[in-house]
Amino acid sequence: MIEEVGTTAEGDLVINVGPQHPSTHGVLHLVITLNGETIKKVEPHLGYIHRSIEKMCESLSYRQFIYVTSRMDYLSSHINNHGCALCVEKGMQIEVPARAKVIRVLMDELTRLASHQLWWGAMAMDVGALTPFFHAFRERESINDIMEETCGARLTMNYMVPGGVMVDIHPNFQKRVKEFIQFFRGKIDEYDELVTGNVIFKSRMKGVGYLSPESAVSYGCTGPTARGSGVSCDVRKLYPYEVYGQLQFEEVTASGGDCFARYMVRMREMRQSLSIIEQLIDIIPEGEFQAKTKAVLKLPKGEFYSRVETARGEFGVYIISEGATTPYRIKFRSPGFSNLSALDHMARGHKIGDLVAIMGTLDLVIPDIDR
Amino acid sequence: MSKEELKIRLAELFPAAVFEEGAEWTTVAIDAAGWEGFAREVRRAEGLEFDYLFCVTAVDWKTHFTMVYHLTSTLYRHVLVVKAKLDHEQPVIRTVSDIWRTAEFHEREAYDLMGVVFTGHPDLRRLFMTDEWKGWPLRKDYEDPVNMIKL
Amino acid sequence: MDVSPQHTDNKPFPGEVHPTAGGGILVTKLDEVINWARSNSLWPLVFGTSCCAIEMMSTAAPKYDWSRFGFEVARATPRQADVIIIAGTIVNKMAPVLKRLYDQMADPKYVIAMGACATSGGPFFYNTYSVVKGADHVIPVDVYVAGCPPRPEALLHALITLQEKIKRGAS
Fold first, then answer.
1. How many CB pairs under 8 A join B and C?
2. Is position C31 within any domain?
3. Does C127 touch chain A if contact means CB atoms closer than 8 Å?
4. DSSP per position, A33-49
5. Does C128 touch chain B (CB under 8 A)?
6. Overall domain count for chain C
7. A: neighbours with 3+ CB pairs under 8 Å?
8. Is residue C123 in a domain?
9. What b-and-e string marks burial along B39-77, b requiring 16 or more CB atoms within 10 Å of the CB?
10. Of C51, C93, C130, which is closest to A155 when you measure between CB atoms?
């Protein structure tokens, strides 16, 4: 039930973590019931960044509402925009040219890399290693520079539009991405050397925060959180969109179910993303980068659902349209919302330091949860 | 199972269900009172086993509410969309948080933003708004002259 | 040349005369030294709500390093911090928390509103029921930074502007 901060009748301590706290990755307020230092219950309080996005989208047109999703899960901003564009294209039956599809997948995978880099740096910082933070951000700047040249922005780029992409890629794009692939391949090995093999890191991660496959499915977890428990749920493999059906890459799963398994899933996903980029960077087809669409888009009456795989899991866009220029109801199915509901289940019986490690491997971005 | 086979199987299990045509996935509209029985059946039934609830939406149609549940199965990979119509004055439906644990948070969100009451929910209170907030923000007739600046 | 009569009459001085605080050259020089010291070692509070927090972390990262300007240590507790950089949107539920953090900071304290959301509500200005349209509805702000999110160079410019404001003694 609702616990007030203080001491309960049984002598348990109820304390606050957040909303302003370095390890909550945003504004997450947790009310923890402790017995000594062992956690008995974790209760997340949300809403500290609830910006009423779904209500706002009901008054924005179908071209306008895409910018808002950039700001929801800002580390996978391209992928969120991609999901919205796919939904609108599904409704209007727009055919996207081949060049735009390949550019979109390239941008998605670069974003996934950038998001995992930041996750790695922030998570290592949470468990106490401060150096990886600086390494991760230094490499992230290379991706930001590539994005900035083409899209014009570093973090929230509004690049995907219904019909394709907004502008064509910069002439330097292919050269810079190839240089980046060479550069980063060596860096992932460095990351493994620095953190993965570390004895202290392993003992903090192994055996902590176990999530069984049945619980993962019941709690609705997706993405690396569920794949770390062995549940196969990669949207790119199960419901392929754009050119993912023709690419050679593996869906990375691990069977441990604990923090270390989730960590290894993400590290291996970084390598898979690199290999996808390598497969595509030389064969970008010529052609249009944007299909011709009407200036004002009106989706026909009906419901449309599209799903994409962000760095955190499955992101779904559900549009209910009544034939007007603005949607009647939009629902964003965010991956973090369901992943967070498993936190209580995973953290019981552990210590507070383990809670920080578990939150790090869940990779929560709170504006994604609160919308 | 394909869309057609799923429709036939569901029609023989639930004769009272109404199927919608022309949607991407099998869409079925059921009576809100029979939601619990329907949910337990599709969760357990041989060949159906919808163990993954991935989207819970509440829609305000001004004359009534609709709860939309998107379900899929990790074993068979088929998708089912269930709709239940609720009364506008008193939107009440049974919770499914004991069948799919993810529904706990989703139903709290639907309660907070739309005012739909879920009977049997272990902890139904506001999720995003402050506890003292009056009104259901996502409803179509929500007026808030203090906070909302209309374009 | 004769001075005209209107200049030789002793009329009262127009306007008002305020005695200025300070005790002459010694104290003003000391003030300058203190302001210089304060401005060059401002410690920011770790406070980021949404996307601008990532650009703030990038400013702390090696490429746009802010510790060259003295913002070396980012403290997690408001008791030891000098400047709060409001990076992100403030919503109704978060506003009392922000006010409490500001009250807990010790004087002299400064506030930078980073990004469009903290300045005025930003992209969430119209048709939202839960966003506070600008952090200055909650606490007094010294420097506003535009951008969504502002580039790290823009944030560095804001920090330097704050430093100059402090050196001028205007805070």
1. 26
2. no
3. yes
4. EEETTEEEEEEEE--TT
5. yes
6. 1
7. B, C
8. yes
9. beebbeeeebebbbbbbbbbbbeeeebbbbbbbbbbeee
10. C51
> Chain A within 8 Å of C147 (Cβ-Cβ)?
no
Q: Which residues of A touch C87 (CB under 8 A)?
A: none
Residue A318 has pLDDT above 90, yes or no: yes
Range of the domain at C154: 43-167
Q: Which residue in the block uniquely carries the two structure tokens 């509500």?
A: C121
pTM of the model: 0.89
For residue range B61-76, what is the model confidence (pLDDT) as tens digits? 889 899 999 998 888 8
Q: Does C125 touch chain B (CB under 8 A)?
A: yes
Q: How far A56 CA lies from chain C's nearest CA (Å)? A: 5
Contact: C88, A49; criterion CB under 8 Å:
yes
For the stretch B26-36, pLDDT in tens is 888 888 888 88
Question: Domain for residue C38, yes or no?
Answer: no
Asked if residue C160 belongs to a domain, the reply is yes
Q: Are A132 and A125 in contact (CB under 8 A)?
A: yes
* pLDDT grade for C21, boundaries at 50, 70 and 90: low
Q: Residue count of chain C, please give it.
A: 171
User: Is A354 inside a domain boundary?
Assistant: yes
Domain CATH code at residue A131: 1.10.645.10
pLDDT band at C112 (very low <50, low <70, confident <90, very high): very high
| Min Cα separation B46/chain A (Å) | 17
Q: How far apart (Å, rounded) are the C-alpha atoms in residues A28 and A355?
A: 13
Mean pLDDT within A96-104 = 91
In the prediction, which pLDDT does A115 show?
A: 92
Domains defined along chain B, listed by start: 3-92 (3.30.460.80)
Can you give the pLDDT at residue C9? 61
Chains contacting C (3 or more CB pairs within 8 Å): A, B
Residue B150 contacts C where some CB pair is shorter than 8 Å: yes
Q: Amino acid letter at B19?
A: F
Are B104 and A305 a contacting pair at CB < 8 A? no
Residue A1 pLDDT class (50, 70, 90 cuts): very low
Angle at C63 between CA C60 and CA C65, to 5 degrees: 35
